[in-house]
Structure formats: structure tokens, C-alpha cells
Amino acid sequence: MGRYHIVMKSLALITLAMVAGLPSLAAAQQSPQPATPPAVHVPTHTERDKAKVAALGDLSDDHRAKVLAIVDRVNRGQLTDFHAAELQIDAVLTSEESRAVLAEHDKLVRTPNTDPTWHPGRFLLRIAITPEKLRELQLQLQQKQSNEPR
Questions:
Q1: Is residue 99 pLDDT above 80, yes or no?
Q2: Are residues 120 and 51 in the same domain?
Q3: CA distances from 28 to 23, 34, 55 (A)
Q4: φ and ψ at 94, to 5 degrees?
Q5: CA-to-CA distance for 97 and 141, rounded, in angstroms?
Q6: CB 38, CB 16: distance < 8 Å
Q7: Residues 69 and 142 both lie in one domain
């Protein structure tokens, strides 16, 4: 099982753990128990591949070539700053393309995008890089989060 799926399942478990704590809070306040939110959808490899094709298909030929060139530089290790790569991708896209890419993200995860940190460049980079680079990115993000002051 790929690291992407492990991370997504971990997020689902964390969400479930947080939801499990809500009934005790509700009982303490003597209010009705909140409804359980729908389960978090963890995309399969096939769904992820289809989202990649659809998202890249939403771009003009010129913009698709530029995005894939950035992804290729990341995959080859020539561009190691993932955040910079995301921003470069964002700079290539028109606002219409950005909306279309985020719509593909929403279809993939089956929920509307409400996280302000998600942007088209982030989504395109994550679905287009190799699984090895995706694992590297996830480790880099974990290290960054563990080094941030709390």
C-alpha cells in the first residue's frame, strides 16, 4: 500500500477519533448527540490516475506542457523545494484552469475544498509526481511540522 493511502487512512482515523470525543462533550452539555459526519473518502490509485488525466486535461496545451516540465524537474531532483514548485505551477494557470483543477480535487476526495492551504499547484504536483517523490514530499512536510514551534 502506498504512503499516500497510509496518510489518507491516518487522516480518516484521526477524524474518527475526534468525532468519537464529540458525544461525551454533547452529553456533558445535555444536548442531543451530533450526527456522525460521512466517512472520509480515500482515493484508489485508479481514481487518482483518472483525476490526474482530468486535471491535466483541463489545461491548455501550453500550460499542460509547462506544468509537466515543472513536475519533471521535481521528479528528476532538479527542483527540490516542493512549495516553490507548487507556486510555479499556480503562476502558469489561468483562473479558469485553477477552478477546474480544484473541481477535480473535490471530485477525487468527494468533498468540497474548504482548506485554504490547498491550491491548484499543490493538487497538480501531488497527483503528477512519482510515488517516490510523493513519499519524499510527505516526509519533508512531516519534518517541517515537527520543527514548527507549538
A1: yes
A2: yes
A3: 9, 13, 46
A4: -80, 165
A5: 26
A6: no
A7: yes
Looking at the fold, whether 27 and 63 belong to one and the same domain comes out as no
Overall number of domains in the chain = 2
Name the grid cell of 19: 468525532
- What is the per-residue pLDDT for 2? 62
Distance of CA 25 to the CA centre of its chain: 30
What's the chain's average pLDDT?
79
Task: Judge if 31 and 79 occupy the same domain.
Answer: no
- Expressed as residue numbers, the domain containing 125 is 43-147
Query: What pTM does this model have?
Result: 0.65
Side-chain half-sphere of 10: how many Cα atoms within 13 Å? 8
Are residues 51 and 11 part of one domain?
no
Q: 18-57: buried (b, 16+ CB within 10 Å) or exposed (e) per residue?
A: eeeeeeeeeeeeeeeeeeeeeebebbeeeebebbbebbbe
Q: Are residues 120 and 66 both part of a single domain? A: yes
